[in-house]
Sequence to fold (472 residues):
Amino acid sequence: MKYYPKLQQVYNFDNFEKQGKELVAQLNAHLKNTQKPKTNANHWLKPDEELNYWQNYQFDNLTTFVDDLLQHSIHLHNPKYMGHQVSVPAPLSVLTNLISGMLNNGMAVYEMGQAATAIERVVVELFCQMIGYDDEANGVMTSGGTLANLTALLAARQSLKEQDVWQNGMNDKLAVLVSDQAHYSIDRAARVMGLGNVGVVLVPTQDDFSMDIDALKKSYQDTSDAGYKVIAIVGSACSTATGIYDDLTAIGDFCQSKDIWFHIDGAHGGAAVFSSQYKSLLKGIEMADSVIIDTHKMMMTPALSTVVLFKDKKTGNQTFHQKAQYLFEDNSIEEQWYNGGLRTFECTKFMMCLKFYVLWKTYGIEIFEENIDCLYGLGNTFAEMIIQHKDFELALHPQTNIVCFRYIREGLNEQQLNELNKTIRQKLLEDSEFYIVQTILNGSHYLRVTLMNPMTTEAHLHNLLRKISLFA
Fold:
């Protein structure tokens, strides 16, 4: 038999142990370094500069590569990271990525991922219980909110009584109604489904950026009069730009009155069902036909990991119903919860359930409530600080850990204020000590923070405002 020296080296398990210990030590040192007061949250380079760096990069070994990668990456564990809606992953949960990667048990069929398939079922049952579903509910886990929203809307389309779109194709003009503040993944999912531009109806919002229910009723009527079949109405829990929850009960009541699928995009804020203090924001969630919740936003797991929950398990089972006889023993409509490939767009997927499961079983369900209470509370604290500061104003009072605000200066018109805040944000990006983002609301430019790090303190927030004032 021919000898392959490189392959022998690749699968030398003693090398793996040595490299693994060195890597964990290196990452742990990085975590500790992120907590030092003078450590920046970011390392900003323009896109072409970053590309040039890696195009000309000389790879020496794993250790130096990781050092360089860390240097060129955003540091979410730094308390001055206040940017996008991405969790600061719990180190223990990160280790489960290593386990999943090593086992590499794809979960399309039970026999390829039996442990993870059963664990996923346990995790999904917990989420169903938390949102108030009964034993007729089920769900799956999938790779991120975008794919989760697509999965739910495909189920909504497949639930149409008049036609089987999955088998026979689309005959009618279909539409989805969603808030004009909803995440762009809803629009993207609808377009992927072939609904086109006119099939995504944006419902106006109220002054607080929640869906206007009267406008919803009018949008539904106008869409129906134009010859479109509304297959779903989507409630935001919460919206991405402002962190505001739609009135889920009112949307749910309207959906029931019209026999329309009610979907809730709870990618960010759905996790509040685990909090006694904040779960009232989700009043009416149990009325939804489907709900998605990202664990990689408010539940401390690394990306990507999303639960898709169905009030009636039959709808979830029928969405991707097709023949694949070399994989599945029996492809009847009857539930086969243990064969995930029948119920997800993904065939092979990694063992994402481990990320949440290990945190839950190690620290108890209370750990998720603590994280949500801490971060939502921090958002309220920051809002009060802004209210007390004469040089800043809020776009609106936050319901979550997302806060939109801007620097103001007497004598400047709206266009000048927009340019000033846009420039401030760019200066912050280039300075790299803090990492925040920006948004536009009703034509006005606002700075935006999402307080994802439980290690962020009031002192960090004061320092952020001080630096903004300095740049202004």
Q: What stands out?
A: The domain at 105-363 is CATH 3.40.640.10 (Aspartate Aminotransferase; domain 2). The radius of gyration is 24 Å.
